[in-house]
Amino acid sequence: MAERIAQDIADFRKLRENGCVYVDKTDLLHTLVCDPTRSLYFISRPRRFGKSLM
What we know:
two-stranded parallel sheet; alpha+beta; 2 strands; elongated
């Protein structure tokens, strides 16, 4: 089965079971993790954002 990018599935398990790919288009996490001057991170999410994908 070819992998596709899902736009309507919010559950990571269902994404993988359906052969879908989750694409995180934010570069923020990479920037935070690679910044040697930071040691603590607070990453919040909007209400009903999809906890299983965070």
